[in-house]
Amino acid sequence: MSATISVNGRITGERDAVISVFDHGFLYGEGIYETMRTYQSRPFLYERHMRRMRRSAELISLELPFSDDELAARIRETTDAATLPDEAYIRVLVTRGIGELTYDPHATPTPSVVIIVKPHVDPPRSAYEHGVAVVIVDVVRNHPGTVNPMIKSNNLLNCALAAQEAIRRGGFEGVMRNYLGELTECTTSNLFIVKDGVAVTPPLAAGLLPGITREFLFEIGSEIGIAVRERTLKDADLFGADEAFLTSTTREAIPIVTVNDRRIGSGTPGPVTAKLLAAFRRAAEEARV
Asked: Which residues, in sequence order, are CB contacts of 39 under 8 Å at separation 6+?
């Protein structure tokens, strides 16, 4: 799958996109990112993604070298150069920049900005029609006092190790606990359960990334009369759920039908998940936010 990439304003194909090995994003994982996708050729919920990116930047004391409008223009230039047949997957990465082998941020006065654009590929239709199997992994989500999960960081080793465990065990996704044994999120998505018609997701205080789709579902639920709430969740809550689903920018809302080979509810996608997904898609296609 061919990608078009902008590295500090230079747009090339993926084979010619390069960044210095002395960039602190490469050397130390010092950087942040956002993943977006388009509907009707427009980045969906762009302002919310930028709000989260700026929050991530603040948490690592990184000054972003662009305004929201300036970055939007760079993204348009990159997507125009990509000449995509349909909708786009967009990944924006900002690193500390190029500098000496030191943790001192004064050594990297100029951040690096990378924009990756490639065709968006939906998950298989079967994932939505029949649901997916997930596993609860042994890898614990970062403690907020270490690498705060509120930072959408380029340093993804915690999630990568958890995802690799899930893959080894045959899971579509891996559900992660925090240091207290509470459920937090999946490795690349947020987690919801449904009980008695109410959609419930772990609170941000449990130590998880504030997903943009997760946030938007609170509003979607309110519009269609489905309560969406935060609550501390344990393994038993997930196993005892009527339904479960995961959310992310590129996956929307995918039903979960088994966890650790144990059936959730009826073992088929449930009505609350279906209603929230349909309402989300209507809003996205209207591109009104």
From this structure: 87, 284, 285, 287
